[in-house]
Design brief:
It is a single chain. The chain is an alpha/beta fold. Helices cover about 40% and strands about 15% of the residues. α1 crosses α15. The chain is globular, with a radius of gyration of 22 Å. The N and C termini lie close together (about 10 Å). It holds the Pfam family Mito_fiss_Elm1.
Length: about 375
């Protein structure tokens, strides 16, 4: 009993992309999990300016400033999300108290705000937990049992990366040292879109997609970032290219993310929304994303989203990228790695969507899970069979 891991704890940060990676890894390991979440003060100019600080320091400064300005809020006004706050001492105590009965606890965290909590759990209960940190924590990897991060996070250590970073900023740019044996490198992001999930989605969305004319082209549009800048210019380019391939599509479905600027979505809706074979998802529930992944025959994805590209490239279906030339720094390195592997091609508008091409699908989540199992075995632990 003391060597079998039967449960997992996820330390989330409220960001779907980060939590999706942790849950995807635990799914691949076949474990049930409980979600705890760190919450950072938000709203207002002061909180936006303090987001670069460690979470604990931000909270302390927030409480001090708020106490000075308006006094402490009444308890009933503090809100409750339904998910328990991630408190390191509580989780470590739980792992200690249940060890004899339930065995060790796997703790999986993802994102900058979760680092302090996850590392504190490891410090407080080192013999009772196995802590996996997803996304690079920048330094002091000995705070965790395993770190899982994309290869492009090490781009700042390459000669090209260092040429792009002023010397006085380098120690603050992840990471600070080459990867060691604690680090598992992936191509893209971990996710939940495994074969079982896609089969389930295919069955669940059969009524929605089965009768659609083939091939079905799915277009996923994210939003500009500091390292992938675009606006209406890319929207016009994408619209023109989609109009060119429309004749070789049986159906075309378009979805926007919460980050998509309104001026970008407005252009696509105005130019493409009136075509009978085009459907534009308005983002309302139920979420069609897994149905699109399961039933789509090909994908066009904007270059800003590592997570959407990682999911699509795990399906083995053609994936086209638009806007990669607008990305810089480590994100340009990520796109180069995808092209070198033959898993993506640039979207030009000259494609025939009825033609398929093959590649070896990305399997980052399954491979990372295998590395977790290996690391557990080295410690004398195993997953419950």
């Amino acid at each position: 009993m003391r060597t079998a891991i039967r449960r997992a704890i996820v330390i989330g940060n409220g960001i779907a992309g980060a939590e999706n990676q942790s849950i995807g890894l635990i799914r691949a390991l076949g474990l049930p999990h409980t979600l705890y979440r760190v919450t950072r003060p938000s709203g207002g100019i002061i909180n936006n300016g303090l987001r670069w600080l460690p979470l604990s320091l931000h909270k302390k400064l927030h409480d001090v400033i708020k106490g000075i300005l308006v006094g402490p809020p009444p308890v009933e006004c503090q809100g409750f999300s339904g998910i328990v706050e991630a408190e390191a001492h509580f989780i470590a105590k739980l792992a200690l108290e249940t060890f004899d009965k339930d065995g060790p606890t796997l703790v999986v965290a993802s994102g900058w705000d979760t680092i302090s909590v996850a590392s504190s759990i490891k410090r407080l209960a080192p013999e009772n937990v196995f802590v996996v940190q997803i996304q690079h924590p920048r330094s002091k990897l000995n705070r965790f049992d395993l770190v899982i991060t994309p290869r492009h996070d090490y781009y700042p250590l390459t000669p090209e990366g260092q040429q792009q970073i002023p010397w006085f900023l380098r120690r603050w740019i992840t990471p600070r040292e080459p990867p060691d044996r604690k680090v598992v490198l992936t191509v893209g992001s971990l996710h939940q879109a495994d074969s079982t999930a896609l089969q389930t989605a295919a069955s669940f969305w059969h009524h929605e997609f089965a009768a659609l004319p083939k091939p079905l082209l799915v277009v996923n549009i994210g939003g500009p970032t500091s390292h992938c800048r675009y606006g209406v210019d890319l929207a016009k380019q994408l619209t023109a290219s989609l109009l060119q391939v429309l004749s070789t599509c049986g159906s075309l479905r378009i979805s926007f993310s919460r980050r998509t600027p309104k001026q970008v979505s407005d252009i696509l809706v105005r130019e493409l929304g009136h075509y009978p074979k085009v459907y534009i998802w308005n983002g309302e529930d139920p979420n069609l994303h897994m149905g699109h992944l399961a039933w789509g025959d090909a994908f066009v994805i904007t270059a800003d989203s590592v997570s959407m590209l990682s999911e699509a490239c795990s399906t083995g279906k053609p994936v086209y990228v638009i806007g990669a030339e607008r990305c810089g720094w480590k994100f340009a390195d990520f796109h180069k790695s995808l092209r070198d592997r033959g898993v993506v091609r640039p979207f030009t508008g000259e494609e025939n969507m009825s033609q398929r091409w093959k590649y070896t699908p990305l399997s980052d989540t399954e491979e990372a899970a295998g590395q977790v199992i290996k690391a557990l075995a080295e410690r004398g632990w195993r997953l419950q069979s």
